[in-house]
Amino acid sequence: MTLDTSQPPPVHGPRPTLPEREALEGSLPPAPTRLAAREFNLYYGTHHALKQVSLEIPSGSVTAIIGPSGCGKSTLLRSFNRMNDLIPGVHLNGHMVVSGHDVYAPGTDVVELRRRVGMVFQRPNPFPKSIFENVAFGLRMLGVNDRAALSPRVEQSLRRAALWDEVRDRLDRSALQLSGGQQQRLCIARCLAVEPEVILMDEPASALDPTATVRIEELILELKGRYTIVVVTHNMQQAARISDRTAFMLQGELVEYDDTRRVFTSPREKLTEDYITGRFG
Amino acid sequence: MSALGLPLVPLPELPRARRADWSGSGFTLLSAIAAGLIVLMVVVILGDVALNGWATVTWEFLAGAPREGMTKGGIFPAIYGTLLLVVLMVVALVPFGVGAAVWLHLYARQDSWFTKSVRFAVHNLAGVPSIVFGLFGLGFFIQFIGREMDRAMGLDVVWGQPALLWASLTLALLNLPVVIVTTEESLRTVARDQREASLALGATRWQTVRHVLLPQALPGILTGAILAVARGAGEVAPILFTGAAYFLPFLPKAPTDQFMELGYHVFVLATQSPDVDATRPLLYGTVMVLLALTFLLNLTAILLRSRLRARLLGRG
Fold it and tell me: Do A114 and B200 lie within an 8 Å CB cutoff?
């Protein structure tokens, strides 16, 4: 794949030019950091999967993590909500900070962490339950069982996930009858229902057709601001379209992490340039 | 010339696939004979039982008790005893088996020696002959647990004797490996992403088991239960020493009572009767009822399972 780096990447809507943006950002106080990795290392057995990764993700932004297969981008994503805990043989050191809390500190409430840091997976994975019950699942797990209390939250979540109009008259039908793209938006709605601060998305559109992909991308842009979003993607145009900041990873190392515009137009590292111009990957 | 305007180069001809050779058709024939034999055996057995048992199975036979040294009367006590036995067995078996499978699959550290020895034990338990389970039940449940209970409660002999409770527990033990293995297998088939989806939403491990994994594994768990019921209803050896009675003038009322059972009744009619010719029709009738009962239990479970499956697939 090649990317013409002389042209700015396609984006949604008019976007300030780089000097304008720098001026703007200079005048505003920087957004507080929502997620941070500090010298984070992770091993699968003896395989060193994440090497000294440090990065800070500002609140309310969309960050894309790009890199070739096996570079550790999903591993990094799953470290934020400790989903790697489920894999036997994983050990790690360094710090991972969410909203000021070190998530690997002893005594961390992992269940609460995962509620606050939601996750959307590569393949849509709705439960074999009704559409309503899928969205209500997280709330029920929190002990909300009253239909009158659940309904408005389910509706709000489905609206935010831009799915409400399509499913409003069939909430009690099985979620498995929805199309792949609808299922993925349902998974996003399900995740929004428990009011997370952060949404991690692991290649959320890679199993979807182009139209469904566009809808997911639009949705990410709509959710931005209210939520801090981190998207792993192997699609560089997608990263360029939706993200404010881009992290490029290679063989477990964070090679470059900067404003998306800069990463795609004037990357500091030769490796980044080679990757985004399609010389490898 | 091809569509692209290039000359078509003829490719060398491929060797023709050999459609059928002698050994292939020979093997097909052998498999067909083997399959046919199985069908034939089932037809012969069922046919024989049905033809000879049909006339015996009347309402009086189903609802009456044996009379005149088992040469007359019905088998109601045995039907009643079998049903009680199987129900008690399932009640004891399923929670234990499913619990063990959930622990093995989700909670146990897979590489610890304890987990490995539990797995080893489960697989070996499956290979133990059923008569050994019977002896174990006698030694462990009746002579150890039962007697200790009597001693602790200052009773004469209430628990420390063959009884419905001990027989069903022995049968449950016999079928435990089946349920553990099928449950674990079906938990394994629940996609990992379902488990991750639940945990990522802030569900605890137990909530994930309870609301996501077990509902989806239910058809598989039912399969295990079906196998256990089918086997439990027909197995005689484990209950021989632990609670089945040759003949009882009353129905069991408490878990400490002995009981009559269809499989054992078949054995009694076939070998212990003073007049074999007189009991033969009763024997056929009893076998037919036993088969029908097992078949009915299986059918119910299979229907239940297919309804559950349909619901999981989003139909129905």
Answer: yes
